[in-house]
Specification:
The structure holds two protein chains of two kinds. Chain A is mainly alpha-helical. Chain A is built from 14 helices and two strands, in the order H-H-E-E-H-H-H-H-H-H-H-H-H-H-H-H. Chain B is globular and about 75 Å long. The chains are: A mainly alpha, B mainly alpha.
Amino acid sequence: MTAARRKHLGPLVLIAPAAVLLGVFLVLPYLNIVVMSFRMAGQGTPYGPGFTTGNYTKFFADSFYLLQVANTLWIGLLTTAICLVVGFPVAWQLARGNMRFRALAYGLVLSPLLVGIVIRSYGWTILLGNNGLINRTLTGMGLIDRPLPLMYNALGIVIALVHVFLPFMILPIMAGIQGVDPSLESAARSLGASRFTAFRRIVLPLCTPGIQAGCILVFVLSLSAYVTPSLIGGLRVKTMAVTVVDALIDTFQWPWGSALALMLSVTGALCVVVFARLTRMKWKVARP
Amino acid sequence: MKRPVLTLYCLLVYAFLLAPILVVVGASFNAGNFLTFPPQGLSLRWYVTFFHNDVFMRAIRTSLWVAAVATVISGTIGTMAALYYVQHAGRWKETVRIAMLAPLLLPEVLTAIALLFFVYAIGIGTTTMIGMVAGHVLITLPFVFINVSASLESFDPSWDMAARSLGADRLTRFRRIMLPLIKPGVIGGALFAFIISFDTFTISFMLKGIGTSTLPIQLFDYLRTNFTPEAAAVSTVSILLTLVVVIVSEKVLGLRIHRF
């Protein structure tokens, strides 16, 4: 080996462990799951011999599953929209506000990320249940006679998901707003633009990448969320991720579960592509 | 405060973010047999019950063990990859970055299922911890990579050349120039890896074997059938453990976390 070759190969040692890890424990499993989705159902085993497209035809033939995908997408969309509306003013204040307690406020936004998702969902069951804190307080004050149905429905799931994923919306938007020079706004204002026009024409277009990153992150995360829908939705409202995991854990239908999981992921990816087209996104993998 | 409406609105959002966490902590001191409101007096009885509950104690040990092992492995591999990415990747830079972030961009539920089938396909199944640890390394790797490569962005190759022209060998250059630069990134990344691993659910849920449930799994199982405040005590201890890790790294090691 020549010295030049060796010099070129030397640094590859640095990337080799990561490449092997990703190759063996990410690429191969993903190839395997695609193959698995075309296998036959087994008799008393996770999967049988032979291949079929039956898992996919079953999915498209049964309106139950299509409806469930639609339901999951709806919950994801609602969660994303609410996160955006709730989070934007907070991101704005964090980026631009003259606050004495900015570090504290930033810590408050980050703090839910340090608490496990099971614990946070559990907190919501304490708050939202029929005998939960909110319903007890309201009945105690004599405002309602019967408990409000806050849990075991889509409403409860969306409330808890907004809580779980809100930081993922606030942080990229905050970074986006911080990247916009405030003097651009002043310039627009001095040229006679109203405060709203300056915001709409100057600030909003410039911080769009942050908004896009936040929306995609929250949408994708809420589609594959398992714990929150499972604890809050109970047996009554099931999202796709819950159905998939239960199909694998409880009934061991591996090929069917694989097909369902892949269909959910492909649908989610399609939604992201449509979103990117609609908002004229510049494709550059967003820095998380 | 210039804009009272905006400030008030933000305070409400912060309250919303903290509410479920505070409620859990508050519920853990409930003396009653069930989570009732208002609480039937204050007590630490559920902490005592929890500390005598072998199932939960074993789960905490498993969680800490898996998180420690995963942090060491992904800290090492991620740091090496970040060094390659910043200094040697050349025209492969973007490819390396996307590949390293892939575990973060792919849905965790799909990754977990794919890994479960894979460990059975290669014959190790869930009787060993290999699958679970591999999964934890996979999902924590991007966080180490992001933090270390961010801390390397300010690196100027001429410093390295200067040291070289002054006669420093490769090891000395790494120890005296590179290491101090990447140290905050490595610590921040490792801290993040530890917390993510300690709290992660889906990967552990799919890849757990018999008796290798982590704390979030055990808590989830418990919550499906039980309604005593013991779960709140378990949660509070788990939150405290995370806080201790964060505060210790902040005070002792002086960390700086890049992004999230």
